Amino acid sequence: MRPRDPFKLPTLFCLYIxxxxxMAFFSTVLPVIMRQEQYSLSQIGLxxxxxxPWIVKLLWAPVVDHRARDYTSLRxxxxxxxxxxxxxxxxxxxxxxxxxxxxxxxxVILSFAASATQDIAVDKYAILSLRGSERGxxxxxxxxxxxxxxxxxxxxxxxxxxxxxxxxxxxxxxxxIVLAVLPLWLRRRRDRxxxxxxxxxxxxxxRDIPGFFTSLSSKRxxxxxxxxxxxxIGVMAMVKPFMxxxxxxxxxxxxxxxVFGSAVAALCAMAGGLLLRRMGHLRxxxxxxxxxxxxxxxxxxxxxxxxxEIQMYVAIAWVxxxxxxxxxxxxxxxxxxxxxxxxxxxxTIQIMITHLSGLIVAALSGxxxxxxxxxxxxxxxxxxxxxxxxxxWSQSRSLEVSQExxxx
Length: 408
What we know:
By secondary structure, the protein is mostly helical. The protein folds into 2 domains: 8-189, MFS general substrate transporter like domains (Growth Hormone, Chain: A), CATH 1.20.1250.20; 211-406, MFS general substrate transporter like domains (Growth Hormone, Chain: A). Helices cover 78% and strands 0% of the residues. The protein is built from 16 helices and no strands. The longest helix is centred in the middle third of the chain and has 30 residues, at 135-164. The protein is globular and about 55 Å long.
């Protein structure tokens, strides 16, 4: 069954691309450019500050929920955030990287705050505008748009920088953002918002955030969020040093992971929504976890010896494909567990939980690989995937009820 509005999903796809291309460029390509310009590692390390708005965006998510209550206000928040984002990036392009590093860093942080605000509004728009049966496909647009944007921002724009220079590349970034928001701006029709309860006019503030964590079912749900990615995040964090130790060059790793891996993740993310619709949420989520388990086991197997290049391509495709599918599953799972009037806040909470878990697992994976070797690490990752499967099974009934309630 196709969505009633054929332009709804492409619009979401464009909006998620709009936020991911500049983010990929500034967080991945800019450090490369700075190193080529002889910046110190300490200065390059300061670039980690640009991610701060996305870490703390939960603090103003309730404000977006309170102010963006209908289609018109949601549309306004998204478009104005994007245009502000584009204007700042255009302004950054007018500055010299060598002489205005501090100001550029400040402006990038400000632009990421606008991007994080847009993300909250877009997530809320997606939750309310998609019927329950459309959410899998909608989250394919979200995950697929993020992977495509990352591929474009880290690959194409790095090549463009070497040919066009700083100012033209930043101008291209600003242009991409404006073009990506055009489909929403051109939508003259008012999207129907599918709401689970009547909208009130009560004030929403930070005191609403702790309420998400109170019920027993929420605690089990949070445990699932913490574990769902854990069986592949450690693998993905250590696959680059694993390949370096196997003798692969930096350029070869960039092609195999940055291009091939991201492309596989994007394709699998696009397929993930169709699988969710065909198989149902519970079976699809379990299948995605099984793929993560098998990916970790395959890495464990090839780490016992010296893997061939074909085996490495298979391993990369397996883990990135599992990550693309799991992203769609997590986003859909999070959309189904939001409170009325707090859609943006609750979705942000859940995704931040998965990111926090990913940071912890990635950090610990390096310590474990150092202490016990890659084979032991990949074995532990397989155990974590199995544990996530058990937690999912323990919540099978509540997930089935949640899915039934979302079918419109």
